[in-house]
Amino acid sequence: MTDLTGRVALITGGANGIGRSSVDLFARNGANIAFLDCDAERGRELEESLRGEGFDVTFVEADVSQDGQVSDAVDSVLDKYERIDILFNHAGRIIAKPLLEISISEWDELMNHNAKSVFLMTQAVLPHMLERGSGIILNTSSTSATSASPLETIYCASKAAMHQFCRAIAVEFRDSGIRCNLICPSFVRTKHADEEIKQLRHYGVFASENDIQNMQGRICEPDEVAAVALFLASDDASFVNGAEIYVDNTFTVT
To answer: Which residues contact 75 (CB under 8 A, 6 or more apart)?
Structure first.
Protein backbone atom coordinates (compact mmCIF):
# COMPACT_ATOMS: atom_id res chain seq x y z
CA MET A 1 0.00 0.00 0.00
CA THR A 2 1.13 3.52 -0.83
CA ASP A 3 -0.10 5.83 1.91
CA LEU A 4 -1.87 8.92 0.54
CA THR A 5 -3.99 9.35 3.66
CA GLY A 6 -5.07 12.94 4.18
CA ARG A 7 -4.08 14.05 0.69
CA VAL A 8 -6.51 15.41 -1.88
CA ALA A 9 -6.10 14.33 -5.50
CA LEU A 10 -7.85 16.04 -8.40
CA ILE A 11 -7.98 13.83 -11.50
CA THR A 12 -9.27 14.93 -14.92
CA GLY A 13 -10.76 12.43 -17.35
CA GLY A 14 -11.52 10.20 -14.39
CA ALA A 15 -14.70 8.49 -15.59
CA ASN A 16 -13.13 6.01 -18.01
CA GLY A 17 -9.98 4.07 -18.80
CA ILE A 18 -6.73 5.05 -17.12
CA GLY A 19 -8.39 7.94 -15.32
CA ARG A 20 -11.03 5.64 -13.86
CA SER A 21 -8.40 3.14 -12.72
CA SER A 22 -6.45 6.00 -11.14
CA VAL A 23 -9.49 7.30 -9.22
CA ASP A 24 -10.07 3.80 -7.86
CA LEU A 25 -6.41 3.12 -7.02
CA PHE A 26 -5.73 6.49 -5.39
CA ALA A 27 -8.88 6.15 -3.27
CA ARG A 28 -7.88 2.66 -2.12
CA ASN A 29 -4.52 4.07 -1.08
CA GLY A 30 -6.04 6.66 1.22
CA ALA A 31 -6.49 9.79 -0.88
CA ASN A 32 -9.62 11.92 -0.95
CA ILE A 33 -10.57 12.14 -4.60
CA ALA A 34 -12.23 14.75 -6.78
CA PHE A 35 -12.45 13.85 -10.45
CA LEU A 36 -13.68 15.71 -13.51
CA ASP A 37 -15.13 14.38 -16.75
CA CYS A 38 -17.63 15.22 -19.50
CA ASP A 39 -19.11 11.71 -19.17
CA ALA A 40 -21.59 12.42 -16.40
CA GLU A 41 -23.22 8.98 -16.46
CA ARG A 42 -19.99 7.05 -15.96
CA GLY A 43 -18.66 9.66 -13.55
CA ARG A 44 -21.67 9.46 -11.25
CA GLU A 45 -21.66 5.68 -11.47
CA LEU A 46 -18.03 5.54 -10.28
CA GLU A 47 -18.66 8.11 -7.56
CA GLU A 48 -21.62 6.12 -6.22
CA SER A 49 -19.72 2.83 -6.36
CA LEU A 50 -16.68 4.08 -4.44
CA ARG A 51 -18.75 6.03 -1.93
CA GLY A 52 -20.65 2.82 -1.29
CA GLU A 53 -17.36 1.25 -0.22
CA GLY A 54 -16.69 4.11 2.17
CA PHE A 55 -14.25 6.16 0.11
CA ASP A 56 -14.34 9.97 -0.04
CA VAL A 57 -14.86 10.54 -3.76
CA THR A 58 -16.51 13.50 -5.51
CA PHE A 59 -17.40 13.70 -9.19
CA VAL A 60 -17.70 17.06 -10.95
CA GLU A 61 -18.99 17.24 -14.50
CA ALA A 62 -16.72 19.58 -16.45
CA ASP A 63 -15.08 20.14 -19.82
CA VAL A 64 -11.48 20.95 -18.92
CA SER A 65 -10.87 22.70 -22.23
CA GLN A 66 -13.23 25.48 -21.12
CA ASP A 67 -11.83 28.20 -18.85
CA GLY A 68 -15.05 28.92 -16.98
CA GLN A 69 -15.79 25.27 -16.30
CA VAL A 70 -12.26 24.69 -15.03
CA SER A 71 -12.49 27.65 -12.64
CA ASP A 72 -15.87 26.54 -11.31
CA ALA A 73 -14.74 22.94 -10.88
CA VAL A 74 -11.54 23.84 -9.03
CA ASP A 75 -13.43 26.27 -6.80
CA SER A 76 -15.95 23.56 -5.90
CA VAL A 77 -13.16 21.11 -5.03
CA LEU A 78 -11.41 23.69 -2.86
CA ASP A 79 -14.71 24.60 -1.17
CA LYS A 80 -15.14 20.98 -0.13
CA TYR A 81 -11.58 19.83 0.61
CA GLU A 82 -9.79 23.16 1.21
CA ARG A 83 -6.66 21.88 -0.54
CA ILE A 84 -5.39 20.06 -3.61
CA ASP A 85 -2.17 18.12 -3.07
CA ILE A 86 -2.11 16.15 -6.32
CA LEU A 87 -3.28 17.27 -9.76
CA PHE A 88 -3.43 14.50 -12.36
CA ASN A 89 -4.10 15.93 -15.82
CA HIS A 90 -5.30 12.84 -17.65
CA ALA A 91 -8.14 14.02 -19.92
CA GLY A 92 -7.41 13.99 -23.65
CA ARG A 93 -8.70 13.15 -27.12
CA ILE A 94 -7.50 11.51 -30.33
CA ILE A 95 -8.03 12.29 -34.02
CA ALA A 96 -6.28 10.13 -36.60
CA LYS A 97 -6.57 11.21 -40.24
CA PRO A 98 -4.36 12.47 -43.08
CA LEU A 99 -2.85 15.89 -42.44
CA LEU A 100 -4.29 17.41 -45.62
CA GLU A 101 -7.82 16.45 -44.54
CA ILE A 102 -7.59 18.04 -41.11
CA SER A 103 -9.71 21.11 -40.52
CA ILE A 104 -8.89 24.12 -38.38
CA SER A 105 -11.66 23.09 -35.98
CA GLU A 106 -10.08 19.64 -35.55
CA TRP A 107 -6.69 21.23 -34.88
CA ASP A 108 -8.32 23.47 -32.27
CA GLU A 109 -10.18 20.51 -30.74
CA LEU A 110 -7.03 18.50 -30.06
CA MET A 111 -4.96 21.48 -28.97
CA ASN A 112 -7.73 22.56 -26.60
CA HIS A 113 -8.30 19.14 -25.04
CA ASN A 114 -4.70 17.87 -24.97
CA ALA A 115 -2.66 21.02 -24.34
CA LYS A 116 -4.85 23.98 -23.38
CA SER A 117 -6.67 21.88 -20.77
CA VAL A 118 -3.39 21.15 -18.98
CA PHE A 119 -2.54 24.84 -19.01
CA LEU A 120 -5.96 25.79 -17.63
CA MET A 121 -5.95 23.15 -14.89
CA THR A 122 -2.38 23.87 -13.85
CA GLN A 123 -2.94 27.63 -13.79
CA ALA A 124 -6.05 27.15 -11.65
CA VAL A 125 -4.51 24.72 -9.12
CA LEU A 126 -0.86 25.76 -8.92
CA PRO A 127 -1.38 29.00 -6.90
CA HIS A 128 -2.98 26.99 -4.09
CA MET A 129 -0.08 24.53 -4.11
CA LEU A 130 2.41 27.37 -3.97
CA GLU A 131 0.62 28.83 -0.94
CA ARG A 132 1.12 25.51 0.85
CA GLY A 133 4.70 25.15 -0.37
CA SER A 134 4.19 21.76 -1.97
CA GLY A 135 2.30 20.02 -4.73
CA ILE A 136 2.47 17.20 -7.25
CA ILE A 137 1.36 17.57 -10.87
CA LEU A 138 1.06 14.48 -13.06
CA ASN A 139 0.24 14.50 -16.74
CA THR A 140 -0.74 11.78 -19.17
CA SER A 141 1.26 12.38 -22.30
CA SER A 142 1.88 9.68 -24.91
CA THR A 143 4.65 7.93 -26.78
CA SER A 144 3.34 10.10 -29.65
CA ALA A 145 4.95 13.14 -28.00
CA THR A 146 8.36 11.91 -29.10
CA SER A 147 7.64 9.08 -31.55
CA ALA A 148 5.71 10.26 -34.60
CA SER A 149 2.90 8.12 -35.97
CA PRO A 150 1.31 8.10 -39.46
CA LEU A 151 -2.08 9.86 -39.65
CA GLU A 152 -1.61 11.35 -36.17
CA THR A 153 0.15 14.62 -36.96
CA ILE A 154 -2.04 16.90 -34.86
CA TYR A 155 -2.30 14.38 -32.02
CA CYS A 156 1.51 14.17 -31.90
CA ALA A 157 1.76 17.97 -32.01
CA SER A 158 -0.78 18.45 -29.22
CA LYS A 159 0.95 15.94 -26.96
CA ALA A 160 4.37 17.42 -27.68
CA ALA A 161 3.10 20.90 -26.72
CA MET A 162 1.70 19.59 -23.45
CA HIS A 163 4.88 17.57 -22.90
CA GLN A 164 7.27 20.50 -22.99
CA PHE A 165 4.88 22.74 -21.04
CA CYS A 166 4.98 20.27 -18.16
CA ARG A 167 8.76 19.89 -18.25
CA ALA A 168 9.05 23.67 -18.05
CA ILE A 169 6.68 23.73 -15.05
CA ALA A 170 9.02 21.34 -13.25
CA VAL A 171 12.00 23.60 -13.89
CA GLU A 172 10.26 26.86 -13.01
CA PHE A 173 8.72 25.67 -9.75
CA ARG A 174 11.21 23.08 -8.52
CA ASP A 175 12.45 25.29 -5.70
CA SER A 176 8.90 26.09 -4.63
CA GLY A 177 8.14 22.51 -3.64
CA ILE A 178 6.40 21.49 -6.86
CA ARG A 179 7.03 18.23 -8.71
CA CYS A 180 5.69 17.85 -12.25
CA ASN A 181 6.11 14.60 -14.20
CA LEU A 182 4.81 12.98 -17.37
CA ILE A 183 3.51 9.49 -17.99
CA CYS A 184 3.85 8.32 -21.59
CA PRO A 185 1.80 5.21 -22.39
CA SER A 186 1.64 3.41 -25.71
CA PHE A 187 -1.44 1.32 -26.61
CA VAL A 188 -3.66 0.76 -23.55
CA ARG A 189 -6.91 -1.20 -23.42
CA THR A 190 -9.26 1.81 -23.26
CA LYS A 191 -12.03 3.52 -25.24
CA HIS A 192 -9.38 6.03 -26.34
CA ALA A 193 -7.31 3.27 -27.96
CA ASP A 194 -10.41 1.66 -29.47
CA GLU A 195 -11.30 4.99 -31.09
CA GLU A 196 -7.74 5.40 -32.37
CA ILE A 197 -7.76 1.93 -33.95
CA LYS A 198 -11.21 2.56 -35.48
CA GLN A 199 -10.01 5.79 -37.09
CA LEU A 200 -6.80 4.20 -38.38
CA ARG A 201 -8.74 1.32 -39.94
CA HIS A 202 -11.02 3.82 -41.68
CA TYR A 203 -7.94 5.01 -43.59
CA GLY A 204 -6.70 1.52 -44.40
CA VAL A 205 -4.25 1.10 -41.53
CA PHE A 206 -5.16 -2.27 -40.07
CA ALA A 207 -4.11 -2.17 -36.43
CA SER A 208 -5.11 -5.40 -34.71
CA GLU A 209 -4.28 -6.56 -31.20
CA ASN A 210 -1.77 -8.93 -32.81
CA ASP A 211 -0.06 -5.93 -34.45
CA ILE A 212 0.08 -4.22 -31.06
CA GLN A 213 1.57 -7.36 -29.52
CA ASN A 214 4.31 -7.30 -32.14
CA MET A 215 5.10 -3.67 -31.29
CA GLN A 216 4.95 -3.85 -27.50
CA GLY A 217 4.60 -7.48 -26.46
CA ARG A 218 0.96 -7.17 -25.41
CA ILE A 219 -1.62 -4.47 -24.89
CA CYS A 220 -1.22 -2.50 -21.67
CA GLU A 221 -3.99 -2.52 -19.06
CA PRO A 222 -5.25 0.76 -17.50
CA ASP A 223 -4.31 -0.43 -14.00
CA GLU A 224 -0.66 -0.66 -15.05
CA VAL A 225 -0.56 3.02 -15.97
CA ALA A 226 -2.49 4.00 -12.84
CA ALA A 227 0.15 2.21 -10.75
CA VAL A 228 2.85 4.44 -12.25
CA ALA A 229 0.76 7.52 -11.48
CA LEU A 230 0.37 6.34 -7.89
CA PHE A 231 4.14 5.95 -7.54
CA LEU A 232 4.77 9.44 -8.94
CA ALA A 233 2.18 10.88 -6.53
CA SER A 234 3.85 9.23 -3.55
CA ASP A 235 6.77 10.22 -1.34
CA ASP A 236 8.73 7.35 -2.91
CA ALA A 237 9.11 9.58 -5.98
CA SER A 238 10.28 12.60 -3.98
CA PHE A 239 13.34 13.19 -6.21
CA VAL A 240 11.58 12.47 -9.50
CA ASN A 241 10.81 15.79 -11.17
CA GLY A 242 10.55 16.81 -14.82
CA ALA A 243 10.69 13.14 -15.78
CA GLU A 244 9.11 11.36 -18.72
CA ILE A 245 8.11 7.86 -17.62
CA TYR A 246 7.43 5.62 -20.63
CA VAL A 247 4.88 2.89 -19.95
CA ASP A 248 5.28 1.14 -23.28
CA ASN A 249 7.16 -2.16 -22.85
CA THR A 250 9.87 -1.14 -25.38
CA PHE A 251 7.44 0.39 -27.95
CA THR A 252 9.68 3.44 -28.33
CA VAL A 253 12.90 1.44 -27.92
CA THR A 254 12.43 -0.86 -30.88
So the answer is: none
